[in-house]
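User: My instructor asked us to take a sequence, write out its structure as tokens, and then describe one feature of it. I'm not sure where to start. Here is the sequence I was given:
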Amino acid sequence: MEDAGRAMAAARPKVVAALAARLRDLDMAEEAFAEACVAAIAAWRREPPRDPAAWLWRAALHKAFDAKRRLAVRAQAVHDERPAAPTPEDDLLAADEPIPDERLRLIFVCCHPAVGAEARAALTLKVVCGLSTERLARAFLVAEPAMLQRITRAKRKTRDAAVSFEVPARESWSERLEAVLATLEIAYAQAYQDAALADDGALFAQEVLRLSGVLVELMPREPEVLGLAALVRFAEARRPARLDADGAMIAPSLQDDRLWRADLIAEGTHLLDSAAGFGVLGPRQLMAAIHGAHLSRRETGMTPWADIVGLYDALMNFRPDPVTAVNRAVAVGEARGMSAGLAALQEIPGGGRLASWLPYQAARAGLCEGAGLLADAAGAYRAALALKPAPAERRYLEHRLAGLALAR
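Assistant: Let's start with the prediction itself. The structure tokens for your sequence are:
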């Protein structure tokens, strides 16, 4: 049933978005999809469908209608289904909509200003992308119970505020844009941290690449929209060079730059240049510039680490958070020596909370190893491995730890 699981995961964003638009209820949409998946496990074993998404859509819709009948809620919205006839969603999605994609439309809905700013991205990632509460808690560096409460409150707010599930008017886009961009950025980060695209975050890489392009078409004069699209293209350009023959992650500085995708680099460069033309700097433009600086090695033969540190310094003005600080410390280590990088890492506040964050432990391990603190490096590599990295990252960390043992 491994193939079935992948098909369900791939269908989830599209089906849940259409269900939410039809039912006007986020919880009911998620519950109906989950029930359809349970039914699919038995049904697909007997006869796999030609179109898993269509099968799940019909099954989930029937589950939702059954639930409505049992609860006698919104009885006027219950209709006898005729599977051969197109649904209103089919007609809606085929029309020339202001937001011509059901997932992007639901992202705008979930990012309604009635929902607290700190909860919009989390709610959207939960509903649209299907990220687990545990994974969301790791992404936002909060405890899992706190994240569950945040999502529950956000869903309650959409009900209490009678948030419309219609396409928002164009004049309302700007007030939701930051939350929309944050959602896509975090979704992509879930895919980027898995070089082999081996887990459920794998679906987000191509999806965010596509959706960021849709946003550029919709809002071509928004510098941060252009910046996000450039960031994703620069990062995806390195995808073909991120694994070695054993399936282990390769660090960016060791990748074969001949494998980097020139088409995506060109697209990203054009987008970032266009963003710069508006003269309004933002964090996603800086992040894209950092990726672009790494990619410049393809032309110059060297990584401009001093420039990258400067870009991280500028990014800290927008995002003085642990994520930026940890990445900056790694760049400082490359530019000024590993001991300097380790000192920068140790200056980051909130060390106790960071101890359970895998990128922090991986950065600490690499900096300690480079500074000759092999025992500390081994401890950090073990701590990173205990945090359940994706397969390619696990192999990389295991190789580094084994190399320390040989060096002693």
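For the description part of your assignment, you could build on this observation: DSSP finds 21 helices and no strands in the chain. Try explaining in your own words what that tells you about the chain.
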